[in-house]
Amino acid sequence: MSKKAASQEPLSKPRKKDLTVLITDFLTENKDKQFNYKQIAAALNVKGEDGRRVLIKVLDKLRDDDIILESSRGRYRINNRGLILDGRFERRSNGKNFFVPDDDGNIIYIPERNSKHAMNGDRVRIQLLAKRKRADTEGAVIEILERAQSRFVGVLEVQRHFAFLVMDSKYLSNDIFIPKEELRGAKNGDKVVVEIVEWPEKANNPVGKVIDILGVPGQNDTEMHAILAQYDLPYKYPENIEKYADTISDKIDRNEISRREDFRDVFTITIDPKDAKDFDDAISFRQLAPNLWEVGVHIADVTHYVKPGDLVDVEAEKRATSVYLVDRTIPMLPERLSNGLCSLRPNEEKLCFSVIFNMNDKAEVKKSRIARTVIKSDSRLTYEEAQTVIETGKGAFATEILKLNDLAKQLRDRRFANGAINFERYEVKFNLDEKGKPLGVFFKESKEANHLIEELMLLANKTVAEVIGKVPKDKKAKAFVYRVHDVPDPEKLDTFNAFILRFGHKMKTSGTKTEVAKSLNSVLDKVQGRPEENLVETIAIRTMSKAIYSTKNVGHYGLAFDYYTHFTSPIRRYPDMLVHRLLERYLNGGKSADQNTLEAQSKHCSDMEQVAANAERDSIKYKQVEFMSDKLGKVYDGVVSGVTEWGIYVEINENKCEGMIPIRELDDDFYELDEKNYRLVGRRTRREYRLGQPVTIKVAKANLERRQLDFIFAN
């Protein structure tokens, strides 16, 4: 029997609610045994007639609810069938924690008292509790299977013999207790990273130790490092791995060149952003015959230098992607590789993995091949330089660029005709001073030069995926890493269609994938320049599935490709390195790789991609708040970009900075959230605030540490 249960105070007048939890806990701890009511009473220290009477009633109720089983007359055991679940714990600072089961079933509420101090994202095992009338299903954590996060960022409050880490966390309301001997020289007011070492069962606060001092709150480097630390992302490259990378030879062996196709004398250029340092793709171009062109997509041969299991590879796999914050890049590979050995810099011999296309004037691919190559780029162009050539028809390499652009435009038109979805969103960029302070905001939009490179990269990725995945019906394709984008959920499409009807728009929600996609594109075209443009585009994006990496190919809905992968950016994405290795293996006649291993790697890469995107988003938010911090009291026009039960998010038209009008500011009525229709509605006045609605706001507060702007409505 459980010592914990037997040590309790006698229960002469127990409450049914308390007994329910105690019984299920006791029987769960002894899940392989059965007990009669007297043994259970003794274990729980239930005394007296009243206590036993309540106990029997609770036992009967738990049996009727299938929480426990009466395995033989008067003998009970826990019902393990479907009542013990594994899944993910989601913690909230307001105590409204919940559990997401692995089988994608309904979420289950976990009261704080039953959380067992599980942290946000932990994999846990729960026990379902008896369902109370008119209450949601509840559960209790019985085991923490895997910790998701143990490190937190905050500001130190140092007292005489101990300290606390104070955080502004939506996941953890409890400050972390730090013994004085675990401060590692950190001082009061420092922003630090703390690791939780234990959380005693009966303690309100977890116990931690300082593992890194980030610096003074509000300083640029401190806050950027804090964002990275918050997501458990590295902000410096391990010295031992950089030293190892320095030992990799930069000499290209003549024998290696002889094994490759030689493109050194073929016209080749790179086109990249002006601030790029790593050039991982180049384009070669030459005419083979009248109406026949050779277009080569040459990708840095990273896997020639980085071998499976070496120090660089292990670190790259862990990182899975480069992280792009507003003012810095956290590279996946050491600088010697990313900016040096592998970067396709002009006038340098470089090793590549290439896809070479023979195309006619209609951009129809007549033949393609995949080959290891050696190139020597003639020039490095920025997108702006290439765009000038496209717009004026003049400049260096005008003949080649204009022809490449003509072919790319045809590829693009054909892709949209086949049902690709046209989501063109601007990027917010900042002009920064030498200290990282934002001086201005501008928007980066894709133009023809961007589309030129984009279409050729898409074609290369598609071709590589087809070479491996497209096999005769009687054959099984070898295990591979695909970039997949599933079709939208039909229910979400129906909801979207019902929503746009109020603006006079309608789309097909049934039929072929191409028909549905074309119908959606038609709606997106029609809303351009109309008041509802922002609203419709936002909800359309939310209707789509997320693109991920997987060995299970379901095609790429958004691009309208049946086969697609990522091959073209191995300097900044680990999945591309996996694809390069698999290509080499299969082109050399190797047997299929282990699918389970590849699927686990794919999932890790998808997860890290999301983490990197969140960190990037937070860095943009920080710079937006910093940019707006000297504009308190100013009035701006904006649109409602989000509605929640705690407030209205508004995006300023002029600079795309986003802030929130807290719900407390809406004091003219009691507002309720209508999630289905993306709006807040006043209970008395019926006044509504909906997604996409134009509003005029005044900047009220700018909190740098919380990365939050507060607005109020301008009168």
From TrEMBL:
<comment type="similarity">
    <text>Belongs to the RNR ribonuclease family. RNase R subfamily.</text>
</comment>
<dbReference type="Pfam" id="PF17876">
    <property type="entry name" value="CSD2"/>
</dbReference>
<dbReference type="GO" id="GO:0005829">
    <property type="term" value="C:cytosol"/>
</dbReference>
<dbReference type="GO" id="GO:0008859">
    <property type="term" value="F:exoribonuclease II activity"/>
</dbReference>
<dbReference type="Pfam" id="PF00773">
    <property type="entry name" value="RNB"/>
</dbReference>
<dbReference type="GO" id="GO:0003723">
    <property type="term" value="F:RNA binding"/>
</dbReference>
<keyword id="KW-0694">RNA-binding</keyword>
<dbReference type="InterPro" id="IPR004476">
    <property type="entry name" value="RNase_II/RNase_R"/>
</dbReference>
<dbReference type="InterPro" id="IPR050180">
    <property type="entry name" value="RNR_Ribonuclease"/>
</dbReference>
<keyword id="KW-0378">Hydrolase</keyword>
<dbReference type="InterPro" id="IPR022966">
    <property type="entry name" value="RNase_II/R_CS"/>
</dbReference>
<keyword id="KW-0269">Exonuclease</keyword>
<keyword id="KW-0540">Nuclease</keyword>
<dbReference type="Pfam" id="PF00575">
    <property type="entry name" value="S1"/>
</dbReference>
<feature type="domain" description="S1 motif">
    <location>
        <begin position="633"/>
        <end position="714"/>
    </location>
</feature>
<dbReference type="InterPro" id="IPR040476">
    <property type="entry name" value="CSD2"/>
</dbReference>
<dbReference type="InterPro" id="IPR011805">
    <property type="entry name" value="RNase_R"/>
</dbReference>
<dbReference type="InterPro" id="IPR013223">
    <property type="entry name" value="RNase_B_OB_dom"/>
</dbReference>
<dbReference type="Pfam" id="PF08206">
    <property type="entry name" value="OB_RNB"/>
</dbReference>
<dbReference type="InterPro" id="IPR012340">
    <property type="entry name" value="NA-bd_OB-fold"/>
</dbReference>
<keyword id="KW-0963">Cytoplasm</keyword>
<comment type="function">
    <text>3'-5' exoribonuclease that releases 5'-nucleoside monophosphates and is involved in maturation of structured RNAs.</text>
</comment>
<protein>
    <recommendedName>
        <fullName>Ribonuclease R</fullName>
        <ecNumber>3.1.13.1</ecNumber>
    </recommendedName>
</protein>
<dbReference type="InterPro" id="IPR001900">
    <property type="entry name" value="RNase_II/R"/>
</dbReference>
<dbReference type="GO" id="GO:0006402">
    <property type="term" value="P:mRNA catabolic process"/>
</dbReference>
<dbReference type="InterPro" id="IPR003029">
    <property type="entry name" value="S1_domain"/>
</dbReference>
